[in-house]
Amino acid sequence: MNIKRYFSLPISFFGAVMGLSAISLAWLLIYRISYLAQFNDYILKTSQIVYTFFAFLALLVFIFLFFIFIFKCIINFENIKSEFHNPITKVFFGTFCISCLLLPMILSILLQTFQYESNIIRTFGLILWIFGVILMFGFSLYIINTWLYHKHEFTHITPAWIIPVVGLLDIPLALPYIFNTNLYIFKYFTMLCIGVGFLFTLILIPLILARIIFFQKLPDKLTPTLLILIAPFSVGFSAYTTIFNIDDFAIILFLIGGFLFLSLLPQIFKAYKCCPFKITWWAISFPLATLNISYLKIIANSLQNINSINFNSLYGIFVILAFGFLIFTTLIFLWLILRTTKGIFSKEIENLS
């Protein structure tokens, strides 16, 4: 096996780690909902197996990609340099930062699942999160300065420009998993991330839509990145609810994300029929998984106020839809995993980027 061919993998492949981490958290919520609703053991065990599988896979993919890009820096640094200086691919470096922010949650989940206490792993998770916070803030500031002080063509604008924004919204998510105490400073820190994140969301989305509607459509291989438009609202929901209750504003964020999903779904099906598989298809994974998380958090919050689920009621229908949506998303993940695995272990790998 010629390992050098793996050095053609783009930095955007870290988006797979983001998606796998998020779908693991979604299935963890299903496990907790099943426990609260006292579903049968089969659902509990299945959801535990699934979220553990995706958690391990996220960890393994991150380790694999981390070492690939370490060696790529040594052997093929010019390729990374060209990616970083390209105004379209530059923002994808944020996927590595976000992966560092999400993995501490995965480590915490695995420790709880196997009832294993390890101060070394928890400390590593904390260090990884702090490293991710520093990288994310630094990268976001750098990107904003690049936008302000360098001239860009309208065709450079893609939905991926939202990635540094979503990264800021991802920062508070791991706080409940890492810190046992709810320090008051965390509230202001989270508010900073939410405020800045939504500020640039409100600026970037009109620019992205203006490019697509009035100037030039996205290239076929970038069409799947359209679903990234959902992420600020679904991730923003999770970030907001780390310090506030699920109130009307949180529901509005979820509904906007859901509306965008329904609006963009025909484009994704169209892209599936006409576009060859690329790593950019992983761009649909994180937004879909985080939208599931928002939906399931609303259900889990409502479940605390009722004794049981009546599947003939309106609430019961919402629960059934949530389960169906998660299964639909999981099937997409399985397709992405199988299609990527086929590409990596065949001569097709050079065409994935």
Written overview of the protein:
- Helices cover 70% and strands 0% of the residues.
- It is an all-alpha fold.
- The model has no long low-confidence stretch (mean pLDDT 87).
Summed up:
70% of the residues lie in helices and 0% in strands. The protein contains twelve helices and no strands.
Layout of secondary structure:
Layout lengths: L14 H22 L4 H35 L1 H9 L8 H20 L5 H31 L13 H8 L4 H4 L5 H32 L15 H10 L7 H27 L10 H19 L10 H31 L9
Highlighted features:
353 residues; globular; single chain; mainly alpha
Q: Please count the beta strands (DSSP E, at least 2 residues each).
A: 0
Secondary-structure class: mainly alpha
Task: Estimate the helix proportion, in percent.
Answer: over 70%
- Rg computed from alpha carbons, rounded to a whole number of angstroms: 20 Å
* Average pLDDT score: 87
* Basic shape: globular
